[in-house]
Structures are given as structure tokens and as C-alpha cells.
Amino acid sequence: MDYDEISAELERERTWRFEDLNFLHNLETSIEDEELRRKYRKTLIVMLYSHFEGFCKFAFDYYITAINNQRCIRSSLRPPLITASMNKEFTAYDDLDRKCKIFRKSLPDDSKLHRFSRRHDFVCAFDDFLKVIAEIPENVVDTESNLNPIVLKKILFRLGFDISIADTYKGQINRLLKYRNDIAHGKAYDGIEETVYSDIKKSTISVIEGIKELIVHSIRDKNYLAVPHQNQAM
User: Fold this and answer.
1) What is the pLDDT of residues 181-228, one digit of tens each?
2) What is the pTM of this model?
3) What torsion do the CA atoms of 48, 53, 58, 62 make, to the nearest 10 degrees?
4) HSE-CB for 14 with a 13 A CA cutoff
5) Pairwise CA distance, residues 183 & 192, whole Å
6) Which sequence spans correspond to the domains of the chain?
């Protein structure tokens, strides 16, 4: 995919979200009472988190879509992406009702035997599984409605990224979540100071920008491939 096209798509998503935040922030200027302003900023914090999670979900889903559009065979992808694309096959293996054809009637309740049979079938078919065009489901990306550093790390792991990236943003994300949770639990009754909100907004934007660049460069450089730049698309 073209670098400019990828960047532009994510930039459009980022832009409308930032415009929405700025619109809500500008409404604050119409509030004359500072106490009411502090209380209003609680709404801004909640919306800031919403757009943070929303952008990250969009960006990672976009990454999956971009990979699927390349129609790569599974064997050309990084192991976590192969794993993600084989959910159907793994589900069939996990099906405890799937019995060995040879012993289905004579030994219907021998769970160990039937488990071995499923494993045998999986091993025999594995080479063929790797020759299939990968189709990664979107449900691989699950923000769990609480995109904390651990949840981000799980998403990065499933998509084959360096999970230490989550540690880079740990402080910024945790601070945003602390204030969002304090608001939800009634601990921010007096509201949020302007300097606090501005600082949280700035740090959250830096995380969004970082995720955007991660996705853009990973698609551009084909880092989803086991050997970057050597696609075996069909």
C-alpha cells in the first residue's frame, strides 16, 4: 500500500477526533464560573479517553484490514498473525464432541484417544493450513472497554508488535485512566483544573500519534511478514 494513502486514512480519523475534542473544549470558554468550568472538564476527560480508545481500535482494525487486503498466504506472515488467522482451525480442534472416526462407536467416551485423534488430524493438515490465504478476524483487537497498558500489550502481542511499546506509554495511559476512573467513581467531585486537563490531553495526543506512526510504518515496511518485503500474496 502507498505510504501517503495509509498515512492520510489514519490522519483523517485522527483529525475528526481532535476537532471534536477542540469543539468541546471551546465550549468551556462560554462558562464564566470557574467552579462550573472545573466540573465541565470532567466531561472533557471522559471524551478524551473515549477518543483515545476509539482511535486505537480504528488504527489496529485498519492494520488488520490492510494485511487481509494483501491476500498473503499464512506461511508468509509473522507467527502471531498466522495464529490469529487460524481461529477456525483451533476452534475445530477444541471441539470436544469431535470424535475419532475409527473409534467413534467402539470407544465413544475415551477422551484421551479422541484428543489425540484431533491433534493427529491437526498435524496432518498443518502444511495445508499454511498454504491458505490469511484472513485475520477483527475480534483479535479487543480494547475490553478499558484500554490500559496491559490490554494494549495484549493487542500488540496478538498482532506481532513489540509489546514493550506499551511500556513506553504506560505513564500517559495510566494517568488518563486514573482521572477517568476517579470521575466514574465520584472521586473528582470538585472537577479538573485547566493545567491538569491540558497536560493529560497533550500526553494522550502523543500516545495517539505514536500508535498512528506505528501502524503507518508497519504497513509501509510490511513488518507483518515473517521476512519483510518478501510477500507471497496470491
Assistant:
1) 999 888 888 899 999 999 999 999 999 999 999 999 999 999 999 986
2) 0.87
3) 130
4) 19
5) 10
6) 3-78+135-220
